[in-house]
Amino acid sequence: MSVTSTPNPNAGEPVKRELGSFLRDAWRLAVPYFQSEQKWSARGLLLVIIVMNLSLVGMTVLLSFWNREFFNSLQNKDYDAFLALLFTYQRGESGLMPGFVGIAVVYILIAIHRTYLNQFLQIRWRTWLTRRFLGDWLSDRAYYRISLSAAQNAGTDNPDQRIAEDLREFTADTMTLGLGLLSNVVSLFSFVSILWSLSGSISVFGVSVPGYMVWVALAYAIAGTTLTHLVGSPLVGLNFRQQRVEANFRYSLVRLRENMEGVALYGGEAAEQGTLLTRFHAVIRNWRAIMIRTKYLNALIAGYEQVASVFPIVVAAPRYFAGQMQLGGLTQTAGAFSSVQDAMSWFISFYTTLASWRATVERLVTFDRAIAEARAASGQGVSVSTETTPTGAVALHDVTLALPNGDTLMRHGDLVLPPGQSVVITGRSGSGKSTLFRALAGIWPFGSGRITRPAGTALFLPQRPYIPLGTLREVAAYPLQAQGYPTEAVISALEAAGLAALVPQLDAEENWSQRLSGGEQQRLALARALLAKPDWLFLDEATASLDPEAEAELYRAIQRLLPETTLVSIAHRRSVADFHERRIEVQKGQGSAMDPLRAEPLEPIP
Q1: Is the confidence at residue 13, as pLDDT, over 70?
Q2: Which 3 state secondary structure label does DSSP give 178?
Q3: Residue 208 dihedral angles phi and psi, to the nearest 5°
Q4: Hey, how many other C-beta atoms are within 10 angstroms of the C-beta on 104?
Q5: CA proximity to 224, closest of 333, 356, 316, 344
Q6: How many other C-beta atoms can be found within 10 angstroms of the C-beta atom of residue 461?
Q7: What is the DSSP string of 452-477?
Q8: pLDDT at site 588
Q9: At CA 146, angle to CA 141 and CA 149, rounded to 5?
């Protein structure tokens, strides 16, 4: 199989797409939760929150009429009406009007529970999305294929940030923007009718314009929205890049924390500081660009809002001074105008949030697509199957192995590893031994051909063992559950691997990847093999951090305690070969390809 790739100079940058395409992606990202197994509780919660939001809009409309009655009582110096409007109720031009105290109590109760239920729905939605993304990312080893091709593809950097932070921001911003838009649409229709009835008409060049304040509010909002979009549109790309450079800086700090001893031994503090500061400067540069663009946007929004605070009174004042409305009517007109103008200006008020939300959606969508592509490609490349054969051997059939960039490591290789015969694979660095190891494990996605493995268990131990979080017992049992092994078996395996000193800390939970040396980590990985007792054990330089004497002790322990296990090792040392019956030497061929498999690949070690 030929694998080609073209470097993307804009990897990690947001793809500029049409608004309709973006909204469809956002919809596809949001809707599955409300169609999932939790759909009834999710829809019920959302419906209750919507009803509460609309109730608050209705109470705002009610307060508009209460405001008119209240200011009219002040203008008329009607003290009884003034008190009634505050504490009980009053009949006026708008009918029966409840007191402010009652309205305020109900408003506060609804607002409190709306926020609580909103947060409750957010955490449930985020939990569902996190499980879905984690499941898809880990399924079919999509995470591994993505990590191999991350340099060539956008949308694959910092998956930790996309799952941990972007999903949180997506759920929060989607609820804020969706409910805000709905409330503003309802508020717009509610107050337009009020403003229309209060505005009266105005003569412009001899033409009578009814509901003139509605048209003024519309023109004002259109002008503000257009200017806001022109000034603020670059924030989408800037917010997208800010999320990426922040994650890159944080990842560098985590890498330093995980490799502190190596940095200290090399004396690499200056180099690490240079790398960290370089990535931090990228954060600062992009942040300054956001600052400048936000300054322009805030200047526009602040000016827009300041003018809007007096603009409706100025527009309505001629009718007030002409005696066509009372003070309460003026304040209600100004309030209705502000509500209409605010509803029409929703885009302006939430522009920064919209820019951030769009960047978040773009990151999640590109990540989701990368996962889908990786999972779709899981059946491509070298296929690994379990077959029951008379020989019970592991076999390669016409296998070609390539690198992610398309370079070929091996062409049309055939190999048979019979059970019961321990084999060592040797060769110079870069000859493709570890790639062959990964292909045998069934995780290498670049290449073609077929590998068959017999039924039974196989365990693959790389040179750098994975040490998960947890107690020493859980680390030793990984990837199985610790309770699956008796304590005596775990202790015996640790002692056989030369880790008897750690037995008293069997149930201690520490960061074992930092606590243990490289050699101790390799001993711990071999203890897993002694616990698991696999039918096939593949080791890729799995004892390279140990001295020859310790290495020999461990191989003798494997031979003694796992007599039924077929051992396949990749190693450089001649001493390792002495513990195997056969040897395969990987040799570099002509050109860019390597031909490690000769016609008779298994030969006795002299």
Answers
A1: no
A2: helix
A3: -80, 125
A4: 12
A5: 344
A6: 21
A7: EE-SS-EEEE-SS----SEEHHHHHH
A8: 56
A9: 135
Tokens coding 404: 């992610």
C-alpha atoms less than 13 angstroms from C-alpha of 337 in its C-beta half-sphere: 29
Token pair listed for 439: 């292909």
Can you count the helices (H) and strands (E) in the chain?
21, 16
| pLDDT tens for each residue of 58-72 | 888 888 888 888 888
The residues that bridge with 97 in the sheet, in sequence order, are 90
Asked whether 552 and 407 are in contact (CB, 8 A), the reply is: no
User: Contact at 8 Å (CB) between 208 and 331?
Assistant: no
Within its chain, how far is the Cα of 418 from the centroid? 44
| pTM of the shown model | 0.71
DSSP annotation of 444 reads -
Average pLDDT of the chain, as a whole number: 82
**Interacting residues of 83 by C-beta distance below 8 A, sequence separation 6+:** none
Give the pairing type, strands 536-540 and 566-570. parallel
Q: How far apart are CA 519 and CA 521, in angstroms?
A: 5
User: Tokens standing for 299?
Assistant: 């200047």
Backbone angles phi, psi at 601, to 5 degrees: -70, -25
Q: Which helix (H) or strand (E) holds 404?
A: none
422, 581 contact by CB (below 8 A)? yes
CA 553 to CA 579: how far, in whole Å? 11
Q: Give phi and psi for 326, each to the nearest 5.
A: -85, 180
Task: Output b/e per residue, 534-570; b: 16+ Cβ within 10 A.
Answer: bbbbbbbbbbbbbeeebbbbbbebbeeebeebbbbbb
Looking from the CA of 544 toward its CB, the CA atoms found within 13 Å total 13
pLDDT at residue 503, as a whole number: 93
- Judge residue 96's burial from the number of C-beta atoms within 10 Å of its C-beta, 0-12 exposed, 13-18 middle, 19 or more buried: exposed
215 is written with which tokens? 């048209």
**Each residue's pLDDT tens digit, 168-182:** 999 999 999 999 888
Q: How far apart are CA 50 and CA 45, in angstroms?
A: 9
Whether 429 has a pLDDT exceeding 50, the answer reads yes
Longest pairwise C-alpha distance within the chain? 115
201: left (phi over 0), alpha (psi -120 to 50) or beta: beta
Question: In Å, how far are 140, 336, 479 from 183, measured between CA atoms?
Answer: 43, 15, 50
Highest mean predicted confidence (pLDDT) among 196-210, 278-292, 306-320, 420-434: 278-292
Length of the chain: 606
* Torsion on CA atoms 26, 32, 34, 40, rounded to nearest 10: 180
**pLDDT recorded at residue 6:** 33
- For residues 307-324, one letter each, b for 16 or more C-beta atoms within 10 angstroms of the residue's C-beta and e for the rest, the string is ebeebbeebbeebbeeee
